[in-house]
Amino acid sequence: MSLSIVGLIGAVLGLYLAWIDQKILKGILQATEMKNREAGGDGGFAARHRALLNALVVVVPTVGFPIVGYWAGVSLAG
Length: 78
Prior knowledge:
By secondary structure, the chain is an all-alpha fold. Helix content is 86%, strand content 0%. The protein has one domain. It has helices at 5-38, 44-48, 50-77. Helix 1 (5-38) packs antiparallel against helix 3.
């Protein structure tokens, strides 16, 4: 299987978007946990499953977005 330049550019753009998405999702999880703690709770679902959610937030976009970016680059530009 040969790699195409446009596919690699799409994969790099996908990786960049995954990095941005990761920052946004981690901020949302942190804000949800803090809001629950301020309301007198224990942090809720986000606090109880922090390790799993952080792993999902890191792995899924970091793997998925470059694959979709490569596929889109090859499909759209040839």
